[in-house]
Amino acid sequence: MKANYHYRGFAIEHITKPRMKNIYFRIQPEGIVRISSSKITQKRLFELVDEKASWIEQALRKEALTPKITLGEEILYFGEIYPLAYHPDFRVLYEQCQKGDEMQIVRRYQRFYKREATRYLKERLNYFANIMQLQPKEMKLRSMKRQWGNCRSNGIITFNIHLMQVPKECIDYVVIHELAHMVHMNHSKAFHSLVEQYLPQSNTKRIMLKQFSASI
Q: In terms of DSSP bridges, do strands 33-37 and 10-16 run parallel, antiparallel, or are they unpaired?
């Protein structure tokens, strides 16, 4: 069941699912605040919006800054938007996207990003690991919604395949960030100093990275 409201200047879409135990807030590409929950009153819905107003405003600002592409016609690659049809590097992807529904097209983008990430991220990880004199146990790739990367205490580093959407300097920031966690499993002053040692003005790259969502 779906209902639409305007409240506090927000366009709200309320999805009701009787068996849902938790309440979820998501920002849709059109700037709509989607709230999914079990059956609740309109008063309770607006109370939840009041409680999350600060988060909603911040998320909407981030959504507005995120570059948008037309699936099947454009691609976001290393921070730039390219037309698929007129760029030789993306011609095969363009031909693959001429058939299939939206979810099939998304999966083709994901396969493309994963293939490119396998090559490029491995190269950058090896480069910085050598400079920092570190030896990660393994590199893994996943499609993640909220993380660009993570490093486990056993030395396994996982990167989001959608890092291929962001500028190269932002990719280097994420690679160094995760390698630094092999030394400091926290975000202490020592951790940030280590990142800065190998990537000057790292905070500028971190701020730039925030303009991009972690998935398509």
A: parallel
Q: What is the domain extent for residue 31? A: 2-65
Residue 204 and residue 141 share a domain: yes
Domain final residue, candidates 65, 91, 110: 65
- Residue 36 pairs with which residues in a beta bridge? 15, 24
pTM over 0.85: no
164-187 tens-digit pLDDT: 999 999 999 999 999 999 999 999
Residue 101 placed within a domain: no
**Share above pLDDT 70 across residues of the chain, in percent, rounded to a whole number:** 98
Q: In terms of C-beta distances under 8 Å and separation of at least 24 residues, what long-range contacts does 9-18 make, across chains too?
A: 10/49, 10/56, 10/60, 12/45, 12/49, 14/45, 16/40
**What are the structure tokens assigned to 215, written together?**
């998935």
**Cα 161–166–169 angle (5° rounding)?**
115
Contact 150, 158 (CB under 8 A): yes
